[in-house]
Write a structure and sequence with these properties.
The protein is an alpha+beta fold. The chain contains six helices and nine strands, in the order ββααββαββαββααβ. It has one domain.
């Protein structure tokens, strides 16, 4: 599938770990205080976590007026058929069994069919378990006929500018379309169109395990 990444999304080459750590360290230096010696361990941990959780896509999202957030992508297995009913069933399952931090779900139309959006806000349960208290948006984006879907996770450490992140994330998800769509569409798009997930391994873990923070 293809996604339109806006300029505020800075992709990190997670398939090249050493380079990923260098680039993330440099980017963090532009976004927050601290020396390279202080930021490199943070960058290294973030890259290692993404790789360990099976992420093939990693990026820092830093729009104006919002705290920087981490965007990751994981490929999950999905039933071979996908339609509105399937999306609603997944949405219901997330609401029922997705965990106590699930606050809201929705569907959004894409060029690949309906995607399911989830907003996660940590509460008392996460604090008691000493889990990372990050606000998250997740999107389950199907790739019909492939037996897989893309799970995008956007995680931010604070709610500063969260509305900005919500709008950007929804637009990114809605931009999903097939790889083989008429190439002339690319010429009419102001934002770069990148293929994602084509060669990524399919994970069989529950979406609940895939959470990240910056």
């Amino acid at each position: 599938m293809r996604l339109a990444f806006p300029d505020e999304v800075h992709r990190i080459p997670v398939e090249q770990p050493e380079r990923a750590v260098r680039e993330l360290t440099a980017l963090l230096g532009e976004l927050r205080e601290g020396t390279a010696a202080d930021l490199e361990p943070i960058a290294s941990e973030a890259v290692e976590t993404a790789i360990r959780e099976g992420a093939f896509l990693m990026a820092v999202v830093a729009p104006a007026g919002a705290a920087p957030a981490m965007l990751t992508g994981v490929v999950l297995a999905v039933p071979p058929t996908w339609d509105g009913d399937t999306a609603e069933s997944l949405r219901d399952a997330v609401e029922d069994r997705g965990g106590p931090d699930v606050r809201e779900t929705a569907t959004v139309e894409t060029g690949l069919g309906p995607a399911v959006l989830v907003q996660r806000v940590p509460g008392v349960e996460q604090a008691r378990e000493r889990r990372a208290l990050t606000i998250q948006l997740q999107a389950f984006v199907p790739e019909p006929g492939s037996g897989r879907m893309l799970l995008l996770t956007l995680a931010a450490p604070t709610a500063h500018g969260w509305t900005v992140h919500q709008e950007l994330f929804a637009s990114l998800v809605a931009s999903a379309r097939p790889d083989n769509e008429d190439e002339r569409e690319d010429e009419r798009e102001d934002q770069p169109q990148d293929t994602v997930g084509a060669d990524a391994p399919v994970e069989d873990q529950s979406f609940e395990a895939h959470t990240y923070r910056l």
